[in-house]
Amino acid sequence: MESLTLRSPESRTKQGRGDVAAQARGKIGPEANRLQAQDRVVHDWYRFVLSFPPHLVRDYVRKFEIGPGACVLDPFCGTGTTLVECRKLGLNCTGIEANPIAHFASHVKLDWQVGPGTLRSRAESVAEAVLAQLDADGVPDSCDPLFDRKPHVVRLMMLNLRESQLLLENSISPRPAHKALRLREELSTQFGKRLQDHARLALAKTLVFSASNLRFGPEVGVGKPKEDASVVRPWLDNMRSMADDLRVLRDNPRTSTAVHAADSREVGGLFPAESFDAVITSPPYPNEKDYSRTTRLESVFLGFVRSKEDLRALKRTLIRSNTRGVYKADSDDSHVAEHSEIQRIAAEIEGRRIELGKTSGFERLYARVTMLYFGGMSRHLADLRPLLRPGALLAYVVGDQASYLQIMIRTGQLLASIADSLGYEVVGLELFRSRFATATGEMLREEVVVLRWPGYKKKGARRNREHVGDSKLKS
């Protein structure tokens, strides 16, 4: 595969499906998605369990030959993998994220101007104060049963009823919840706004990975409830790690970075025309993974979601990738009404549902959410075009899915066909990793859809299309 460069876009030609990125790393199995030890700086402050890895961002920065002065966009930036890696490489970068906890995480992970010594010393003072308060409460942070059999002297702190009803049942036990609320209370009074953001992000990580009963697989669930868990000490460890990382990054060049809280389907009015040289991103896949559910615990504890109304408002700003986020008034499916392959897949899913006698509310939505997902991605790609400089390269990490009654959805192929119909050049589909689906007996590909935006070819071409044309791709 020939080298791709932002400096000479006219040299690029369309290329076929390839495995260059994976072969360069010498691996295409599940290990390709893991966070490598050398990448833990900043990335490990807080991240989705199934986040795509920083080394993949480096692969495409190198492949696209993105240099100083260029600006990279991640329109589904999540917890900031692309943004952090670009900043480490000295590149300007911008992110868009609708989920408030993920937007917050990306914002904090790009703030490297906090003094590491101040952050560490303040964290140690706060930890000392909270540990003393917990001892006075009769709920010591240590979980050693030989020393912690103290009677309660206070009533355990709890979330209010409206907030607690948002959580997965038993996602955190009462004693760890009390400790987290005591710590949250202290953070609000002992930290200034800037340091407080870092401290709150460390608490988010602590809640999920130290204090909670959550377990993560294809979807978040609740494991065996633990009676108690330490909160303050792991939080302090997280704060110390942040301070150590900030020392490492002290001499990194300052770059232009920003994270916008917005719906990725409506990006046209956020930036001036032709703002971006490249896009590196991983949007949601069409499956039943609900990111508002995955991040519910920390979203509620940190105050980003306080009610069911807040939750509904959040879900309405997201690509419809799962049935928990589908609403009656949704109309993104109209954007793929004439895409024959997507319509065929939706019809096959609905036919399989009827054949199997599946009648639950969620199962009845499988066909519709498939169309809504690709319609939403079509809206996104259409709205993105004016923001791209001619010759801009785009990398979308997506995966095949068979979540809906084992009907295969070749996400990369379908996304490529939508992009082609909207005037993008499809450079190729490059294998990132693959896994065997035991339910279907087929290989599921996680691919990078590589696109090139050639620019508008004639006057009037800026008009967004209402429908995507037929596709000849077959799964």
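Next protein, fold it too.
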Amino acid sequence: MNSSWRSLALPGLLFSLLLAAACGDEGSDAKGDTPSNNSAANNSAANNSVNNSAANNSVDDTGLITYHRDLRPLMDHNCMACHTTGGIAPAVYDFTDPANVQALAPLIVSSVESGRMPPWDLDDSCVEVQGSLALTPEEIGVFSKWMSDGKLMGDVADYVPQEPKVVDIGAERLVNDDVVEARIPVAYAPRADRADDYRCFVIDPGFAQTRYMTGFETIADNPSILHHIVAFSVPGDEGNLSRLAELEGEDALPGYECFGDARVSDQSVIGAWAPGGGVTGLPANTAIEFEPGTRIVLQMHYNRSEGGDGADQSAMRFWFMPEGQRPQEYGALVFIGNLPFAVPPGVNGSEAEACNTVYLRDDRSLPLPPEGTEARDARGNPMAIGETGCVVQDFYFNTSPLNLKLWGTFPHMHLVGRSLKVEAFEFDRGGETLLPKDGSNQCLINSTDWDFDWQRTYWYKQPKELPSDVMVRLTCRYNTMGMENPVQLGEGSEDEMCLGLLYLSAPVPL
């Protein structure tokens, strides 16, 4: 199947991180937690149930909130997967000991009241998404009232333990599909000379015929050091296999180093995980195609700065439709963004700062123009270092006759990113200049407080129907205050990106 729109899912310059859910104080898999084939349908309700008495401000006849009865179950469900012994959170923020929670109460409560914890940087008025990590106003009120009531501990006999929340999306759709486990071939101990170690491992799923992927989950082996995983598919032709062998031979360690992506030109993202991510089933009746010989590459991000240690041999599980079956709609993660840009030093990228660095790519039909298409700034001059901390990139498409559905969006920037918004506009073709129609914009995602460590894929509660003539606009803002040199597009941690991945589907031709 060679539909041109799907070729957009194979960018040459991809991104460093795609997360299905983040450890916004949400649950993660422990070593040895290996659900069965049917676990996808069985674990969602159990993992996401919580005693709601605290959120409803259930109090005794004194009217006071206590830790053991009211706050502790709430923290079990929303905090303890990270903030526990052996979790990814710093050891100083281990909430296992109630005395430590009481000592850290001012910081905990202020972080919850400000929205910093659990990390949730999405403007919820933009679009309704599944699996929100944000606490409700009632739940936040429990933290606040516990603090104002005097941080009372209460009676431990009143404590009803709760399971950490795991964000399962669409798990029930996978119960009849086949499971393939892609595990790191050997245990890997992250390098001691760096706080962050990005390492890629190649796995051959052994497919002799075309298969269609419908979902994924992660089995985290050592959560004290495992920050996230990104999974790529790489077609198994001679050129790609030769390139992967070359990369694996760069040093004597297992796998190969890979910060930005899988370092192969022909690659597609197929899934990702961070603590809190559970089973992810792709939207109903959609699937991602795997050709015979396709390899899976797992990009592992290890972080030892918070005291974690040891080796890791994590795995990802992928669900596939039974052999010989096809989906009703082909799905693909389509790449939008990363036209050449550079941001000057000493700008803060605030909403008050104008976006006078605008890049346009007028396509009018899929796929995108060849690499090297010239990008220009708002004045029509060839690309140069911008004057502000805001970059706008516009992409024009004609989707007819595909009738594409948009199911979810993954925004991505690096370390100096401040916010990222993705919008879709309908436009007219009447004149030489393609301008968006007033009032036609749809907000696809708005990350208002960007944090590289807590990015994720946002799956919509309902798919969006795109107009046949659609312009997708990315608005990226950056804070380079205190820096001496410009920051430009690139794969390194010192570089920046401005991109979005859109999970689109189109009907399978009859």
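About the second fold: The first helix runs from residue 39 to 48.
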